[in-house]
Amino acid sequence: MGLTAAKPLKTKTDTLDLLGPLITSKTRLKLLLRFFLNQNLSGYLQGLSKELDENTNSIRVELNRLEAAGLLASELDGRRKLYRVNPSHPLTSDLTSIVRKVSGIDALVDRIAGRLPGLEQVWVCGDLAQGLQSEHIECILVGEALDREYIEQLCNRVEELTEKTVQATVSMELPKEQMGQCLLVWAQEIK
User: Fold this and answer.
1) How many domains is the chain partitioned into structurally?
2) Would 115 be classed as within a structural domain?
3) Contact between residue 19 and residue 102 where contact means Cβ atoms under 8 Å apart
4) Which of 24, 58, 92 is the C-terminal boundary of a domain?
């Protein structure tokens, strides 16, 4: 009886491919991504069903399981139940970290934030900011005198690592109209 070596993990970062063997319910996985990519988001049963393109019963079963496990909390809003991440659960930060790692957000922050002088904030926008799986990473880099050529090189490296396209926009500040649509993933510590 011998051990067989596992096949090397491909770098394809499709979140469902990476976490699928650990979390066998695709509906549960979509809900974890939806809630833990951006913990500021909340959702109702019907809205989540439409947003994630899953039937209502599957969503209901998984929401009940996640709530029973303490990962999600809920409150009644009229006749509807509003779900959100339970920030006091001991695994909340770990799940957030895992989801951000497999979505490519960590690669973006690791490659850009520490290497770009003058950078003040990194915001993720688009589908990822809404807690949805995406093959694209849209971000806004906020800072003064940022080197666009160097940013392009860093983004190319993130694309190689994640196999996702990266669209980086440089700005002096986050446009107010995008404030509710983007997720702050990194900010310069104020000294």
Assistant:
1) 2
2) yes
3) yes
4) 92
